[in-house]
Amino acid sequence: MTVVVIPALNEEEVIGDVVRSVPKLADRIIVVDNGSSDRTANRAREAGAVVVDQHVRGYGRACRAGMNAAIQAGADIIVFIDGDGSDCPEFMEALVKPILRNEYDFVIGSRVRGNRESGSLTFPQVFAGLLAGWMLGVCYGIKFTDMSPFRAVRRSLLETLPMTEETYGWNLEMQMLVARAKVRILEIPVNHRRRQGGVSKVSGTLRGTLLAGIRIVSTFIRVALSSRGRGANTQG
Which domain holds residue 99? Predict the structure, then answer.
């Protein structure tokens, strides 16, 4: 069973189109309404999604609420995709099939390696993804080129990851933990568009960009230090 999780905050303009664009390979679509003040939840239900409410804002909190709902629904594979219409769902099959064939456990779509619509990613976003990927290569020997939210993961793996991040560091934390777990990882190029409506909560403002950057750095340091601690405990 493949379940798609879409965290959303004030995306009433586009969430219906995002839900309807999800390929038929998805058995269930879960939209997590992360405290929206508009009609995001209504629009998602009208489009056929199951809506989960997570009133306490935070990207990681929304993703975790969706993850838990997907697990409860019996998901074997969980796909994460943003609710702003920037990700291209037509690439979902390319993310899911390697897991269905039991070739990989975690597949992520790289926006940096794919075709990007002009203005879809800011320079800080591209640079942060490449820098984080380089650091993961140094720490774990696994190199990513992006911290893309568009990813598919085997449910049995996701349940074992000690995910604790509640905000913008969720994607990086997951990538660090799967790299540390030495599971089968695949990165594929995916296309990326400008958001289809609404306002970005990260790149749309200087404050959002700075907060996201700080959170991502702190997440990297926390997980990297916990990895060293685990290694020391194992050796001891």
Answer: 2-235
